[in-house]
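B., you asked whether I could sanity-check this one before it goes into the benchmark set. Here's the sequence:
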Amino acid sequence: MTQRLYYEDAYRTSFRARVVQRLKHDNRPAVILDQTCFYPTGGGQPADHGSLDGVAVIDVLAGEDDGEVVHVLSGELRSDTVEGRVDWARRFDHMQQHTGQHILSQAFTQAANAETVSFHLGAESVTIDLNVARVPSDQVERAEALANAIVFEDRPVRARFVSAEELPTLPLRRPPQVSGPIRVVEVADFDVSACGGTHVAHAGEIGLIKVIKLEKRGEETRVEFRCGRRALADYSRKNQMINRLAALLTTGHGELDQAVERLQVESKQLRRELRAAQERLMDYEAAELCTGAEHIGSFALVRRVFSDRDPAELRQLATRLVTRPKTVALLGLAGAKSQVICARSEDVQADMVAAIRAACQALGTESGGGRPHFAQGGGPPAGEEQVAAALEQALNSVERGA
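And here's what the prediction gave me:
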């Protein structure tokens, strides 16, 4: 068994140990030591990183025998006696987040009657999942305020193993998920939880606890939060963003929401005016195209190849053109993604589905279809000449069916 020194002192970051076994993990060298300060992944908390004799420890895992700790390395160790060093910045970050989670979970229990069912500490995100589908905003605020009050009081945090006789007497927030010796973490007069992770000795070391967002996940609610240095970094990023926005909008921080609301109102109005202008312009364009239409038999033909145009605009233009009687519109779009539209007014007898199939065949694709009076297709890259040739094939089909 590996003696886990972090149980005795989470602030210890260096130690000497003896290699008791060498092995491989995912084709990387790994070792089991007689003792270690490295915390292995477990309980929602990631593993410590650091080094053994200068060789990077890139992962730490509980072995097949639960008492073993496997250290996965970036290279081979030469000696059987090694000096280990734990990355303190990473360790302390995990201590802040994990102890903060205990306090926040108890705060949600008291403020919202919501129990924590899982916890995840990632490189960026820290989350707890609550066993309720919804947490009202006022309860979130109360839970956050209560959690920070415990931090500001700098309450002692104590981690220890308890006997089987003592365990039933403790007000555990959740029953233990493991058997055997149970380690509990106590935040004085506030929370008692079974936990094997690393924790700060005083709540004040956690720093600020800040809830970032809530996400509904079925019958549960995921709470994302930050503690300590992560909360400070999050505040700094958001403060910089607010300062930039205030400068761009030439307004004070307190009026930012009002300035954004004004911009939204103005943007909606401008979009409405733009759509109206575009529609008028398209009416003028349709009228101009009809003025220059070819007259073939009993119908007027509008045939045009465009480049760099929105396909949706092309469909709108075709729809406007065929509102006129005895009109056929054959429109094409050249470029990285070709498009062909075949449309007719109700008083023309030709089948536009047959026309689009003829055009698509000329483009080397079968991606086309629609209804007898309006069909579209295309897809492959095509130049203006190729699209024009496809429209010619569509016209031949129209003339046969008209």
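One thing to flag: The CA atoms of residues 295 and 301 lie 6 Å apart. Otherwise nothing jumped out at me.
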